[in-house]
């Protein structure tokens, strides 16, 4: 099977292209694509509990911690302890963070508007249906359970 005939190859290739383009735009605003994604997923009014942010955007805790530290250092976010339970921390947008969030939002809207002009409604519907199946399989099934174990001693 050729790489371009597998499911993972076009997913990886497309995501790499999206990341590259978003990072070009983000760098103009002293951001990374990851920072922009975090900014877009923080509740603008109340902040977002730090424990909910990682799962919400699919980031591992270590990566999220490093990203949040960098964003806090740049002044895009601040941490606010819960008045009742000090163990709970909300990640909140600073005024600068709100401006950076708007730049991120504009980039995402532009990308989606651009693709909407290139992709028909039926193609878009089919794309989301296929992605839903892939995500469901990855979330709910142990797809590698029946994978035979590679025996290094045979070679």
CATH superfamily: Winged helix-like DNA-binding domain superfamily/Winged helix DNA-binding domain
In terms of DSSP E residues, the strand content is: 5-15%
- CATH-defined fold name: Arc Repressor Mutant, subunit A
Q: Which secondary-structure class do the elements indicate?
A: mainly alpha
**The CATH top-level class label:** Mainly Alpha
How do the helices and strands follow one another from N- to C-terminus?
Answer: HHEHHEEHH
Spatial separation of the terminal alpha carbons: 22 Å
Query: Biggest β-sheet: count, sense, barrel?
Result: 3 strands, antiparallel
Question: Could you say what the CATH architecture is?
Answer: Orthogonal Bundle
* Major sheet strand order: 1-3-2
Count of individual helical segments: 6
Broad shape: globular
Mean pLDDT: 92
Annotation, overall tally of beta strands: 3
What is the count of distinct domains? 1
Instruction: Flag low-confidence runs.
Output: none
Spatial extent as radius of gyration: 20 Å
Helix residue percentage: 55-70%
């Amino acid at each position: 099977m050729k790489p371009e005939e597998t499911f993972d190859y076009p997913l990886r290739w497309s995501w790499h292209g999206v990341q590259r383009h978003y990072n070009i735009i983000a760098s103009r605003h002293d951001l990374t694509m990851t920072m922009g994604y975090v900014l877009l997923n923080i509740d603008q009014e109340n902040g977002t509990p730090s424990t909910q942010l990682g799962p919400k955007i699919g980031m591992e805790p270590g990566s999220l911690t490093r990203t949040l530290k960098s964003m806090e250092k740049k002044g895009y976010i601040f941490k606010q302890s819960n008045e009742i339970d000090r163990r709970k921390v909300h990640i909140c947008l600073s005024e600068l963070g709100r401006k950076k969030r708007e730049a991120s939002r504009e980039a995402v809207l532009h990308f989606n508007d651009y693709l909407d002009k290139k992709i028909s409604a039926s193609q878009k519907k089919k794309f989301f249906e296929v992605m839903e199946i892939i995500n469901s399989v990855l979330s709910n099934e142990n797809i590698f359970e029946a994978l035979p174990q590679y025996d290094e001693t045979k070679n």
